[in-house]
Design a protein that fits this description.
Elements: H1 15-21, E1 26-30, H2 32-40, E2 46-51, H3 60-74, E3 78-83, H4 87-90, H5 105-111, H6 115-119, E4 129-132, H7 134-137, H8 142-149, H9 154-158, H10 161-168, H11 175-190, E5 195-199, H12 203-215, E6 222-226, H13 251-259, H14 266-273, H15 278-289, H16 294-310, H17 312-327, E7 337-340, H18 346-352, H19 359-367, E8 371-373, E9 390-394, E10 398-404
Helix pairs in contact: 11-12, 13-16, 13-17, 14-16, 16-17
Length: about 400
Protein backbone atom coordinates (compact mmCIF):
# COMPACT_ATOMS: atom_id res chain seq x y z
CA UNK A 1 0.00 0.00 0.00
CA UNK A 2 1.45 3.35 -1.08
CA UNK A 3 1.33 6.14 1.49
CA UNK A 4 1.62 9.82 0.68
CA UNK A 5 3.64 12.31 2.68
CA UNK A 6 2.34 15.57 4.13
CA UNK A 7 3.80 18.72 2.60
CA UNK A 8 3.92 21.83 4.81
CA UNK A 9 1.72 24.70 3.64
CA UNK A 10 0.18 27.95 4.91
CA UNK A 11 -3.40 27.40 6.07
CA UNK A 12 -6.10 30.09 6.15
CA UNK A 13 -8.17 29.75 9.34
CA UNK A 14 -10.57 32.65 8.67
CA UNK A 15 -13.77 31.49 10.37
CA UNK A 16 -16.11 33.26 7.94
CA UNK A 17 -14.49 31.50 4.98
CA UNK A 18 -14.64 28.17 6.82
CA UNK A 19 -18.33 28.66 7.65
CA UNK A 20 -19.10 29.40 3.98
CA UNK A 21 -17.11 26.33 2.92
CA UNK A 22 -19.14 24.15 5.30
CA UNK A 23 -22.52 25.60 4.31
CA UNK A 24 -22.71 26.69 0.67
CA UNK A 25 -24.21 23.90 -1.40
CA UNK A 26 -23.62 21.45 1.45
CA UNK A 27 -26.17 18.77 2.30
CA UNK A 28 -24.55 17.33 5.42
CA UNK A 29 -21.29 17.24 7.38
CA UNK A 30 -20.32 14.23 9.47
CA UNK A 31 -18.93 15.10 12.00
CA UNK A 32 -19.33 18.90 11.72
CA UNK A 33 -17.86 19.84 15.11
CA UNK A 34 -14.81 17.69 14.44
CA UNK A 35 -14.31 19.02 10.92
CA UNK A 36 -14.62 22.68 11.89
CA UNK A 37 -12.17 22.16 14.74
CA UNK A 38 -9.67 20.63 12.30
CA UNK A 39 -10.09 23.53 9.87
CA UNK A 40 -9.52 26.08 12.63
CA UNK A 41 -6.43 24.25 13.93
CA UNK A 42 -4.12 25.49 11.17
CA UNK A 43 -3.07 21.95 10.28
CA UNK A 44 -2.82 21.02 6.60
CA UNK A 45 -5.60 18.50 5.97
CA UNK A 46 -5.79 15.88 3.25
CA UNK A 47 -9.07 16.34 1.37
CA UNK A 48 -10.05 13.30 -0.65
CA UNK A 49 -12.33 13.29 -3.68
CA UNK A 50 -12.78 10.24 -5.87
CA UNK A 51 -14.14 10.38 -9.41
CA UNK A 52 -14.77 7.32 -11.57
CA UNK A 53 -14.12 7.96 -15.29
CA UNK A 54 -17.44 6.48 -16.42
CA UNK A 55 -17.61 9.21 -19.07
CA UNK A 56 -14.98 11.11 -21.04
CA UNK A 57 -16.41 14.41 -19.79
CA UNK A 58 -17.08 16.11 -16.46
CA UNK A 59 -20.59 17.49 -16.07
CA UNK A 60 -21.70 20.38 -13.84
CA UNK A 61 -22.95 17.96 -11.17
CA UNK A 62 -19.47 16.52 -10.71
CA UNK A 63 -17.93 19.95 -11.13
CA UNK A 64 -19.66 21.15 -7.93
CA UNK A 65 -17.46 18.71 -6.00
CA UNK A 66 -14.33 19.82 -7.82
CA UNK A 67 -15.14 23.44 -6.97
CA UNK A 68 -15.62 22.46 -3.32
CA UNK A 69 -12.25 20.68 -3.43
CA UNK A 70 -10.71 23.83 -4.92
CA UNK A 71 -12.12 25.88 -2.01
CA UNK A 72 -10.31 23.58 0.43
CA UNK A 73 -7.21 23.93 -1.72
CA UNK A 74 -7.47 27.74 -1.64
CA UNK A 75 -7.48 27.62 2.17
CA UNK A 76 -4.13 25.83 2.01
CA UNK A 77 -5.18 22.20 2.36
CA UNK A 78 -3.94 19.31 0.24
CA UNK A 79 -6.35 18.20 -2.47
CA UNK A 80 -6.14 14.45 -3.09
CA UNK A 81 -7.93 13.64 -6.33
CA UNK A 82 -8.42 9.91 -6.84
CA UNK A 83 -9.33 8.84 -10.36
CA UNK A 84 -11.13 5.53 -9.99
CA UNK A 85 -9.66 3.64 -12.92
CA UNK A 86 -10.17 0.43 -10.90
CA UNK A 87 -13.48 1.20 -9.19
CA UNK A 88 -14.98 2.37 -12.50
CA UNK A 89 -14.68 -1.20 -13.74
CA UNK A 90 -16.68 -2.47 -10.75
CA UNK A 91 -19.35 0.22 -10.93
CA UNK A 92 -20.75 2.39 -8.14
CA UNK A 93 -24.25 1.16 -7.18
CA UNK A 94 -25.11 4.35 -5.28
CA UNK A 95 -28.60 5.56 -6.15
CA UNK A 96 -28.91 2.96 -8.93
CA UNK A 97 -32.23 1.13 -9.15
CA UNK A 98 -30.84 -1.68 -11.28
CA UNK A 99 -27.57 -3.58 -11.49
CA UNK A 100 -24.83 -1.48 -13.01
CA UNK A 101 -22.75 -3.34 -15.63
CA UNK A 102 -18.97 -3.60 -15.33
CA UNK A 103 -17.08 -1.20 -17.58
CA UNK A 104 -14.57 -2.47 -20.11
CA UNK A 105 -10.98 -1.45 -19.26
CA UNK A 106 -10.45 -0.21 -22.83
CA UNK A 107 -13.41 2.16 -22.45
CA UNK A 108 -11.98 3.48 -19.18
CA UNK A 109 -8.61 4.08 -20.85
CA UNK A 110 -10.36 6.00 -23.62
CA UNK A 111 -12.29 8.10 -21.07
CA UNK A 112 -9.07 8.96 -19.24
CA UNK A 113 -7.31 10.55 -22.23
CA UNK A 114 -8.07 14.18 -21.31
CA UNK A 115 -9.29 13.73 -17.74
CA UNK A 116 -6.45 15.52 -16.00
CA UNK A 117 -6.67 18.46 -18.40
CA UNK A 118 -10.44 18.74 -17.90
CA UNK A 119 -10.19 18.54 -14.10
CA UNK A 120 -7.43 21.15 -14.31
CA UNK A 121 -10.07 23.66 -15.44
CA UNK A 122 -11.18 23.74 -11.81
CA UNK A 123 -8.55 22.50 -9.37
CA UNK A 124 -4.84 23.33 -9.33
CA UNK A 125 -3.53 19.93 -10.41
CA UNK A 126 0.07 21.05 -9.90
CA UNK A 127 -0.60 21.48 -6.19
CA UNK A 128 -2.79 18.39 -5.86
CA UNK A 129 -2.04 14.71 -5.49
CA UNK A 130 -3.53 13.24 -8.66
CA UNK A 131 -3.60 9.47 -8.20
CA UNK A 132 -5.27 6.34 -9.60
CA UNK A 133 -6.79 3.74 -7.28
CA UNK A 134 -5.77 0.91 -9.59
CA UNK A 135 -2.25 1.47 -8.22
CA UNK A 136 -3.28 -0.14 -4.92
CA UNK A 137 -6.60 -1.91 -5.42
CA UNK A 138 -5.29 -4.06 -8.27
CA UNK A 139 -2.58 -5.38 -5.92
CA UNK A 140 -4.83 -6.54 -3.09
CA UNK A 141 -4.71 -10.27 -2.45
CA UNK A 142 -7.69 -12.43 -1.56
CA UNK A 143 -6.82 -12.42 2.15
CA UNK A 144 -6.83 -8.62 2.20
CA UNK A 145 -10.13 -8.52 0.31
CA UNK A 146 -11.64 -10.89 2.89
CA UNK A 147 -10.33 -8.65 5.66
CA UNK A 148 -12.14 -5.74 4.03
CA UNK A 149 -15.32 -7.78 3.59
CA UNK A 150 -15.27 -8.56 7.31
CA UNK A 151 -15.99 -4.90 8.11
CA UNK A 152 -19.61 -5.06 6.92
CA UNK A 153 -22.45 -7.54 7.27
CA UNK A 154 -24.93 -8.56 4.59
CA UNK A 155 -27.63 -6.95 6.73
CA UNK A 156 -25.81 -3.60 6.67
CA UNK A 157 -25.46 -3.73 2.91
CA UNK A 158 -29.07 -4.72 2.38
CA UNK A 159 -30.20 -1.79 4.52
CA UNK A 160 -29.14 0.55 1.70
CA UNK A 161 -32.28 1.97 0.17
CA UNK A 162 -31.57 1.05 -3.45
CA UNK A 163 -30.41 -2.49 -2.56
CA UNK A 164 -33.47 -3.06 -0.38
CA UNK A 165 -35.87 -1.80 -3.04
CA UNK A 166 -34.32 -4.04 -5.70
CA UNK A 167 -34.27 -7.05 -3.38
CA UNK A 168 -37.91 -6.54 -2.35
CA UNK A 169 -38.87 -6.46 -6.05
CA UNK A 170 -37.02 -9.73 -6.64
CA UNK A 171 -34.38 -8.00 -8.77
CA UNK A 172 -30.77 -9.15 -8.81
CA UNK A 173 -28.26 -7.60 -6.40
CA UNK A 174 -24.71 -8.67 -7.25
CA UNK A 175 -22.10 -9.45 -4.59
CA UNK A 176 -19.78 -7.34 -6.75
CA UNK A 177 -21.89 -4.30 -5.87
CA UNK A 178 -21.27 -4.98 -2.17
CA UNK A 179 -17.55 -4.62 -2.84
CA UNK A 180 -17.70 -1.05 -4.14
CA UNK A 181 -18.02 0.79 -0.79
CA UNK A 182 -15.24 -1.42 0.60
CA UNK A 183 -12.90 -0.36 -2.18
CA UNK A 184 -13.83 3.30 -1.88
CA UNK A 185 -13.27 3.02 1.87
CA UNK A 186 -9.88 1.43 1.34
CA UNK A 187 -8.94 4.39 -0.86
CA UNK A 188 -9.21 6.54 2.29
CA UNK A 189 -6.69 4.26 3.99
CA UNK A 190 -4.34 4.36 1.00
CA UNK A 191 -4.20 8.16 0.84
CA UNK A 192 -4.57 8.79 4.59
CA UNK A 193 -7.60 11.04 4.12
CA UNK A 194 -8.59 13.49 6.85
CA UNK A 195 -11.75 14.53 5.05
CA UNK A 196 -13.68 13.01 2.15
CA UNK A 197 -16.17 14.94 0.06
CA UNK A 198 -18.84 13.56 -2.24
CA UNK A 199 -22.42 13.87 -3.42
CA UNK A 200 -25.21 13.13 -0.95
CA UNK A 201 -25.93 9.85 -2.77
CA UNK A 202 -22.40 8.77 -1.78
CA UNK A 203 -22.99 8.97 1.99
CA UNK A 204 -22.87 5.20 2.59
CA UNK A 205 -19.58 4.90 0.68
CA UNK A 206 -18.08 7.90 2.45
CA UNK A 207 -18.95 6.55 5.88
CA UNK A 208 -17.47 3.19 4.84
CA UNK A 209 -14.14 5.00 4.69
CA UNK A 210 -14.45 5.82 8.39
CA UNK A 211 -15.19 2.20 9.29
CA UNK A 212 -12.28 0.84 7.28
CA UNK A 213 -9.82 3.48 8.48
CA UNK A 214 -10.71 2.53 12.06
CA UNK A 215 -10.05 -1.15 11.27
CA UNK A 216 -6.60 -0.19 9.98
CA UNK A 217 -5.84 1.79 13.14
CA UNK A 218 -6.15 5.22 11.53
CA UNK A 219 -8.10 8.32 12.65
CA UNK A 220 -11.56 8.37 11.06
CA UNK A 221 -12.07 10.88 8.27
CA UNK A 222 -14.79 13.50 8.49
CA UNK A 223 -17.32 13.55 5.66
CA UNK A 224 -18.88 16.44 3.72
CA UNK A 225 -21.65 15.83 1.20
CA UNK A 226 -22.93 18.34 -1.33
CA UNK A 227 -26.44 18.88 -2.65
CA UNK A 228 -27.38 16.93 -5.76
CA UNK A 229 -27.73 18.86 -9.03
CA UNK A 230 -30.65 18.19 -11.34
CA UNK A 231 -30.02 17.90 -15.07
CA UNK A 232 -31.75 19.46 -18.05
CA UNK A 233 -34.77 17.14 -17.65
CA UNK A 234 -35.22 17.74 -13.91
CA UNK A 235 -33.78 14.38 -12.84
CA UNK A 236 -30.41 13.99 -11.11
CA UNK A 237 -27.68 14.97 -13.58
CA UNK A 238 -26.17 11.74 -14.90
CA UNK A 239 -24.13 10.83 -17.97
CA UNK A 240 -26.12 7.60 -18.29
CA UNK A 241 -29.34 9.63 -18.67
CA UNK A 242 -27.85 12.13 -21.12
CA UNK A 243 -29.30 15.12 -19.22
CA UNK A 244 -25.91 16.70 -18.63
CA UNK A 245 -24.20 20.01 -19.20
CA UNK A 246 -20.51 19.20 -19.60
CA UNK A 247 -17.83 21.71 -18.66
CA UNK A 248 -16.19 21.03 -22.04
CA UNK A 249 -19.35 21.78 -24.03
CA UNK A 250 -18.87 24.50 -26.63
CA UNK A 251 -19.91 27.96 -25.32
CA UNK A 252 -23.04 28.24 -27.46
CA UNK A 253 -24.13 24.69 -26.64
CA UNK A 254 -23.52 25.25 -22.92
CA UNK A 255 -25.46 28.52 -23.02
CA UNK A 256 -28.39 26.91 -24.82
CA UNK A 257 -28.56 24.00 -22.39
CA UNK A 258 -28.66 26.33 -19.40
CA UNK A 259 -31.44 28.34 -21.04
CA UNK A 260 -33.47 25.13 -21.38
CA UNK A 261 -33.46 24.49 -17.62
CA UNK A 262 -36.66 24.51 -15.63
CA UNK A 263 -37.30 27.88 -13.99
CA UNK A 264 -37.39 26.39 -10.49
CA UNK A 265 -33.73 25.36 -10.84
CA UNK A 266 -32.37 28.88 -11.47
CA UNK A 267 -31.36 29.73 -7.89
CA UNK A 268 -29.97 26.26 -7.24
CA UNK A 269 -27.74 26.52 -10.31
CA UNK A 270 -26.55 29.96 -9.19
CA UNK A 271 -25.69 28.42 -5.81
CA UNK A 272 -23.96 25.24 -7.02
CA UNK A 273 -22.55 26.22 -10.40
CA UNK A 274 -21.37 29.83 -10.09
CA UNK A 275 -19.36 32.12 -7.83
CA UNK A 276 -22.23 34.59 -7.43
CA UNK A 277 -22.48 35.63 -3.77
CA UNK A 278 -25.12 34.22 -1.43
CA UNK A 279 -26.50 37.77 -0.96
CA UNK A 280 -27.02 38.21 -4.72
CA UNK A 281 -28.63 34.78 -4.99
CA UNK A 282 -31.09 35.72 -2.22
CA UNK A 283 -31.98 38.86 -4.15
CA UNK A 284 -32.52 36.82 -7.35
CA UNK A 285 -34.75 34.41 -5.45
CA UNK A 286 -36.81 37.29 -4.03
CA UNK A 287 -37.20 38.84 -7.50
CA UNK A 288 -38.40 35.55 -8.96
CA UNK A 289 -40.96 35.16 -6.17
CA UNK A 290 -42.11 38.71 -6.86
CA UNK A 291 -42.92 37.72 -10.44
CA UNK A 292 -39.91 38.99 -12.40
CA UNK A 293 -39.29 37.24 -15.74
CA UNK A 294 -37.23 34.05 -15.11
CA UNK A 295 -35.72 34.29 -18.59
CA UNK A 296 -33.73 37.39 -17.65
CA UNK A 297 -32.10 35.63 -14.72
CA UNK A 298 -31.52 32.53 -16.82
CA UNK A 299 -29.54 34.61 -19.32
CA UNK A 300 -27.39 35.90 -16.44
CA UNK A 301 -26.96 32.34 -15.16
CA UNK A 302 -25.95 30.97 -18.56
CA UNK A 303 -23.50 33.83 -19.02
CA UNK A 304 -21.91 33.20 -15.60
CA UNK A 305 -21.46 29.49 -16.30
CA UNK A 306 -20.02 29.96 -19.79
CA UNK A 307 -17.62 32.65 -18.48
CA UNK A 308 -16.45 30.31 -15.71
CA UNK A 309 -15.27 27.66 -18.19
CA UNK A 310 -14.59 29.61 -21.39
CA UNK A 311 -13.98 33.23 -20.36
CA UNK A 312 -15.95 36.48 -20.59
CA UNK A 313 -15.44 37.02 -24.32
CA UNK A 314 -17.03 33.68 -25.21
CA UNK A 315 -19.83 34.31 -22.72
CA UNK A 316 -20.67 37.66 -24.33
CA UNK A 317 -20.60 36.06 -27.79
CA UNK A 318 -22.88 33.25 -26.58
CA UNK A 319 -25.46 35.79 -25.41
CA UNK A 320 -25.49 37.46 -28.84
CA UNK A 321 -25.63 34.09 -30.62
CA UNK A 322 -28.57 32.97 -28.48
CA UNK A 323 -30.49 36.18 -29.08
CA UNK A 324 -29.91 36.01 -32.84
CA UNK A 325 -30.85 32.34 -32.99
CA UNK A 326 -33.86 32.01 -30.74
CA UNK A 327 -35.28 35.51 -30.52
CA UNK A 328 -34.70 36.72 -34.06
CA UNK A 329 -35.17 33.39 -35.84
CA UNK A 330 -31.59 32.90 -37.02
CA UNK A 331 -29.28 29.91 -36.70
CA UNK A 332 -26.14 29.48 -34.56
CA UNK A 333 -22.87 30.65 -36.08
CA UNK A 334 -21.24 27.30 -35.29
CA UNK A 335 -23.97 25.11 -36.80
CA UNK A 336 -22.53 21.77 -37.90
CA UNK A 337 -22.43 21.10 -41.64
CA UNK A 338 -22.35 17.62 -43.22
CA UNK A 339 -22.24 16.22 -46.74
CA UNK A 340 -24.45 13.28 -47.72
CA UNK A 341 -25.25 11.24 -50.80
CA UNK A 342 -28.41 12.20 -52.68
CA UNK A 343 -31.36 10.18 -51.40
CA UNK A 344 -29.92 9.38 -47.95
CA UNK A 345 -32.62 8.93 -45.30
CA UNK A 346 -32.63 11.95 -43.00
CA UNK A 347 -32.94 9.78 -39.91
CA UNK A 348 -29.64 8.08 -40.81
CA UNK A 349 -27.94 11.48 -41.18
CA UNK A 350 -29.17 12.62 -37.78
CA UNK A 351 -28.20 9.35 -36.09
CA UNK A 352 -24.71 9.37 -37.63
CA UNK A 353 -24.07 12.89 -36.33
CA UNK A 354 -25.51 12.41 -32.86
CA UNK A 355 -28.39 14.82 -33.39
CA UNK A 356 -30.92 12.18 -32.32
CA UNK A 357 -30.22 9.09 -30.27
CA UNK A 358 -32.64 6.67 -31.94
CA UNK A 359 -35.14 6.23 -34.74
CA UNK A 360 -37.85 6.30 -32.09
CA UNK A 361 -36.76 9.77 -30.99
CA UNK A 362 -36.74 10.92 -34.64
CA UNK A 363 -40.25 9.59 -35.27
CA UNK A 364 -41.48 11.31 -32.10
CA UNK A 365 -39.97 14.65 -33.15
CA UNK A 366 -41.48 14.35 -36.63
CA UNK A 367 -44.91 13.52 -35.18
CA UNK A 368 -44.65 16.63 -32.97
CA UNK A 369 -43.80 18.81 -35.99
CA UNK A 370 -40.40 19.54 -34.47
CA UNK A 371 -38.25 18.77 -37.55
CA UNK A 372 -38.16 21.13 -40.49
CA UNK A 373 -36.28 23.60 -42.66
CA UNK A 374 -35.36 26.90 -41.04
CA UNK A 375 -37.83 29.37 -42.52
CA UNK A 376 -39.38 26.59 -44.58
CA UNK A 377 -41.64 23.54 -44.42
CA UNK A 378 -41.99 21.09 -41.56
CA UNK A 379 -40.99 17.51 -42.34
CA UNK A 380 -44.05 15.30 -41.95
CA UNK A 381 -42.78 11.82 -42.83
CA UNK A 382 -40.34 9.66 -40.86
CA UNK A 383 -39.05 8.20 -44.16
CA UNK A 384 -37.96 11.59 -45.50
CA UNK A 385 -34.88 11.43 -47.78
CA UNK A 386 -32.44 14.22 -48.57
CA UNK A 387 -32.80 15.42 -52.15
CA UNK A 388 -31.44 18.98 -51.81
CA UNK A 389 -29.36 21.16 -49.53
CA UNK A 390 -31.14 21.78 -46.23
CA UNK A 391 -30.72 23.90 -43.12
CA UNK A 392 -32.64 22.04 -40.47
CA UNK A 393 -33.97 22.80 -37.01
CA UNK A 394 -34.54 19.68 -34.91
CA UNK A 395 -36.44 20.26 -31.69
CA UNK A 396 -35.96 23.57 -29.88
CA UNK A 397 -32.21 24.05 -30.07
CA UNK A 398 -30.59 21.62 -32.50
CA UNK A 399 -29.52 22.72 -35.97
CA UNK A 400 -27.79 21.02 -38.87
CA UNK A 401 -26.76 22.08 -42.38
CA UNK A 402 -27.03 19.18 -44.83
CA UNK A 403 -25.31 19.48 -48.20
CA UNK A 404 -25.82 17.01 -51.08
CA UNK A 405 -22.57 15.79 -52.66
Amino acid sequence: MKLFGRKPDIVNTNEAKIDELLSRGVEDVFVKESLKKKLLSGKVLRIKLGIDPTSASIHLGRATLLHKLRKFQDLGHKAVLIVGDFTAQIGDPSDKLEKRPMLDSAKITENLKNYKEIIGKIINVERAEFVYNGDWLSKLGFVEVCRLAETFSVQQMMARRNFKERFDKGEEVSLREFMYPLMQGYDSVAVQADIEIGGFDQLFNLKAGRVIQKQYGMPEQDVLTTQMLEGTDGRKMSSSWGNVINITDAPNEMFGKVMSLRDELITKYFLLCTNVSAKEISEIEASLKAGDNPRNFKVCLAKEIVALYHGNAFAEAAVINFENTFKKGGIPDDTQEVEVVLGTALVEVLLANGIVKSKTEFRRLVSEGAVGEVGGETISGAEFAVTKDLTLKIGKKRFLKVRVK
